[in-house]
Amino acid sequence: MSQYTDLSIPVSVVGPGTQPSEEDGMQLDYMKMPNDMSVFNAPIIMDDNIESYPVVEDLMNQLMNALTHFKEGDDAVRFDFATFEEKDIQFINKFLGEGEVAVIFNEENRQLRIQETVLAGVWRIAGHEDGNIIQAIEVGTVPVAIRNDTFAKANSIITLPKEQPAGTINAPSLLTELSDKSFAYLVGDEAHVVNLTLLPQSPEDLDMLGEYLGEGPTVFLSRGYGSCRVTSTNLKHVWWVQYFNSEDKLILNTLEVVDVPIVTQASIEDIRESSGRITEMVESVKTNDK
C-alpha cells in the first residue's frame, strides 16, 4: 500500500503514468500531460466559517502577515501543522485549493508531494521524512526543499567514454557542454539553455543523454498556458524542460543549467497579488453577524 494514503493534500499528480507500478508508490512513469488550457480556478465555496476552526484562523492570520511582508530575495517562510486535527487540515486544503503547479520530490528517507495553492507563491506540502509525517505551508518563489536539496546528491561532472557510441550524432558534445556549464554554474547565474528541438537527434543520442544525465528526485508539473514537465537530472543544476500542446505532443524540449527553472517559480508580483487575495478569501469565510 502506498505510504501516502494518510496524507491530506490535494496534489494534482494523478493520471496516466503517475500511478505507482510498484507497491511502494515511488516509481514514476511517463505522464500524460493535461490536454486543456488552464484558467483561473476560484476557491471552492466553503460551507463552514473559519471561526469554527480557531487554529486554522490563527494560521491564516500568520500566512497573511508572511505574504504582506515577503520581499524579493527573502527566504521562504514555513508553517508546520502536522499536529492539527484532521478536520482542520481538511479545511485548510479546501480553503487554499489547487493552483497550476504540482511537485514530486522523492529521496530514500524523504518523500514530498507539493501543490501550489490558488494563491501563487503559497505551497501546500505533505510527505514523510525519516518516518515523520509532514504537513506544512510555505510562502516563497519555490519550496525550500526543491531549491536547496534537489541537487544535494547529484554529480558535479560527467565522465564520457573515450570512443563515441555508435549511432550518436551530438549527444557526446552536448554532454560535454552541459558538464562544463554545470561545473561552472553559480546560483544566480543566467540560465544556460540547450534547445534539443532544433538539433538533429538519433535514438542513440536520446538514449545516451538519458543514461549519462540520469534522473534526479524532483519533477514539476505545470499546467499554465499549455502544459510543462520539468525534471531534475543527476547532474548538478541540469533540468529537462518539456512543453506539450493540447494534443499531448512534445513541442519544445530543452535542457537548462540553472538552480530552478523560471517556469516553475512564483514571481514576487504573484506573491504581492496573493497578499491581497488572501485577505478577501479569509473575509469570505467569516460570519457576517459580527
TrEMBL record:
Pfam families: HupH_C. Gene3D superfamilies: HupH hydrogenase expression protein, C-terminal domain. InterPro entries: HupH_C_sf, HupH_Hydgase_express_prot_C. It comes from the Bacteria. Residues 59-148, 169-283 form the HupH hydrogenase expression protein C-terminal domain. Belongs to the HupH/HyaF family. This is Hydrogenase expression/formation protein.
